[in-house]
Amino acid sequence: MSVKIRKSLVATALLGATAFASSNVIADPLNDLQKVGQQTQKAAQKSQEKIDNIFGQTQELIGEYRGVVDETELLKVYNDHVERLVMDQRAGIESFDRQIGTIEKTKQDVVPLMYRMIDTLEQFIKADVPFDTDTRMGRVEKLRGLLSNSKVTTSEKFRQVLEAYTVETGYSSGIASSQGSLEIDGKNINVDFARLGRIAYVAQSFDMKHAWVWNNDAKQWDVLGEEYLKPIKDMIRIARNQAAPDLVALPIFGAE
To answer: Cβ of 239: how many Cβ atoms within 10 Å?
Structure first.
């Protein structure tokens, strides 16, 4: 009995060893396969991560490219706009150059014209009714000095010449009065002067007993009759705003 039991135990031991050996032989390839699978999975994950990174970078590059393309289009539009502005400025500069040339030519024509205008103004004042003569001739002399002043622009000189003509034109309307003296028969007589535009220039003595009218044709003062004493007195009062405007009978002498 004991011998059989020992044989059975030996056989069982051999079978167990064989089974253990067989299980080890089978387990090793499975472990290898699992390891390979795990490595493959990890490699796949890393590959996927790389792909994801590359895709992300690609998307960023595409976005940057689109941004560059859009910016390029905007820059092209802006450059076209700037080019049109430059062309317009060049045209403006060319126009200014032409105008400057014209201005220089105009100056060459205007300066002699101003001298002739001043000469004409002086001649007119000398030929006109002799009121405010000193002031008017002083204005002419001032204009002559102005033309010789290099610090004053040509346009300003021309403006003041025109202004002098405007002042002279203003004398043709309105009524004015002043005081002064007349030399009559070698005597100086204090008088009130009154002027209606350029058509009547009269004087009356302070005592209101004598009156005269300027005869511009003869360049002298003519004595007026007593019938003009009251009208001239009224005219003087109107000129001084001491009476309301009214019709008065006056002798008329004007500049030729």
So the answer is: 20
Segments forming the whole domain that contains residue 228: 174-238
Same domain, 189 and 145: no
Asked if residue 57 belongs to a domain, the reply is: yes
Classify the C-alpha dihedral 149-155-156-157 as positive or negative.
positive
Q: Give one word for 186, left, alpha or beta, with left for phi > 0 and alpha for psi -120 to 50.
A: left
Tell me whether residue 23 is in a domain.
no
Looking at the structure of the chain, the number of domains it has is 2
pTM here? Answer: 0.58
110 CB neighbour count, 10 Å cutoff: 17
Claim to verify: residue 216 and residue 153 sit in the same structural domain: no
Q: Which of 103-107, 163-167, 220-224, 225-229 has the lowest mean pLDDT?
A: 103-107
* Cβ 117 vs Cβ 163: under 8 Å: no
